[in-house]
């Protein structure tokens, strides 16, 4: 199965607290891309500051907002946007609700990729994997139930493929890290998530991350993530689409890049009110 990682490195979606409060790749077994993480461990919850983003139709982490037989996944939308949508499929890659001896995974056939129940592989988490031998014109990997074969850069500069855990939210990863790695698979709009290394913490006002990363607030506190270039007032879907020193929040007129500030202290807002960001003590965003 050919898969590659989405260029969404460190993607973060944030929620504003109330004013004055502290509310807190080649890329699959036969193909190749760039690492990416949706840094909101809550799975992309729509903003809760008096407005919602219509791009996020359901809650990925809580698997809420979908009908029976559907599951919520991040998805590519029109005009380069990213959101979440409900998708119907034969099974769920995290719940693993297939018959005994089978696994739910992404299967490719005839240019279409979909979730199906297939024979479970034997490769365990963290071990090497490849495509499973089949004679039915379909492609899926050799990982065990709940895992997916992902490309990783090796110390010698080469590429290896290893089984990593599929997830909807970080608690499902356990000791495997955070639910922060996005896969973009050809033939499906779904952007499934995998458990990846924990994001390093940082100070969003000091910007001490090693290049090419910058520090952005996230729902688990500030983390180092790939830096963006969008300026104050520009539309956004994730915080690290914004330039360092700013973040993506709901301003009441949709999701926009806004400067970071301290609710009590400096830097203060040149324009607007400094509203605290959930789960980021001492960090806020300037909202008109």
From TrEMBL:
Ranges for region Disordered: 24-54
Highest taxon in the source lineage: Bacteria
Protein name, UniProt field: Lipoprotein
Annotated Low complexity bias: 37-52
Source organism (scientific name): Myxococcus landrumensis
């Amino acid at each position: 199965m050919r898969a590659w990682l989405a260029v969404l490195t460190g993607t973060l979606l944030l929620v504003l607290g109330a004013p004055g409060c502290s509310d807190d790749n080649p890329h699959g077994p036969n193909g190749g891309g760039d690492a990416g993480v949706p840094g909101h461990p809550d799975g992309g919850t729509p903003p809760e500051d008096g407005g919602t983003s219509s791009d996020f139709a359901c809650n990925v982490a809580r698997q809420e907002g979908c009908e029976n037989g559907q599951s919520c996944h991040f998805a590519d939308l029109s005009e380069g946007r990213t959101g979440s949508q409900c998708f119907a499929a034969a099974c769920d890659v995290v719940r693993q609700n297939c018959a005994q001896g089978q696994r739910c995974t992404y299967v490719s056939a005839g240019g279409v990729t979909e979730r199906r129940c297939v024979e479970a592989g034997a490769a365990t988490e963290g071990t090497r994997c490849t495509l499973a031998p089949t004679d039915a014109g379909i492609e899926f990997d050799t990982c065990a139930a709940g895992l997916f074969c992902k490309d990783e850069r090796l110390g010698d500069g080469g590429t290896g493929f290893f089984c990593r855990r599929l997830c909807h939210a970080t608690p499902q990863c356990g000791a495997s890290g955070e639910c922060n790695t996005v896969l973009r698979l050809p033939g499906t709009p779904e952007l499934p998530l995998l458990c990846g290394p924990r994001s390093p913490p940082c100070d969003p006002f000091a910007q001490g991350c090693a290049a090419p990363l910058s520090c952005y607030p996230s729902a688990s506190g500030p983390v180092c993530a790939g830096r963006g270039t969008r300026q104050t007032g520009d539309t956004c879907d994730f915080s690290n689409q914004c330039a360092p020193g700013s973040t993506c929040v709901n301003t009441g007129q949709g999701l926009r890049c806004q400067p970071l500030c301290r609710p009590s202290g400096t830097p203060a807002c040149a324009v607007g009110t400094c509203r605290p960001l959930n789960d980021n003590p001492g960090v806020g965003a300037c909202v008109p």
